[in-house]
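[Structure tokenization] protein backbone as discrete codes
[Encoding] learned vocabulary of local backbone shapes
[Protein] chain in single-letter code, fold in tokens
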Amino acid sequence: MSALAANHEPHPTSLGERIAQARRGKGWTAQMLAQRVYVATRTIQRYEAGTRDPLEEILLRIARETGVDANWLIGGTPTAELEAFE
């Protein structure tokens, strides 16, 4: 079971909420995630607040470091669910 499924949080509706949920699923602070993806802590906070969107490269780093699907971060649907619609 993934860390996201295990924490029983409500389904996040925005990119920022999904970033925050992925980070919390790892038990990390914003500062810890920021260090892992090479951005400032305030930048992570802005992503999570929805006042700034990450560049694609940073979004992929966030997905890789937190162990979540990049498609889920972007739109809330993991790749496996997207393939079921094809």
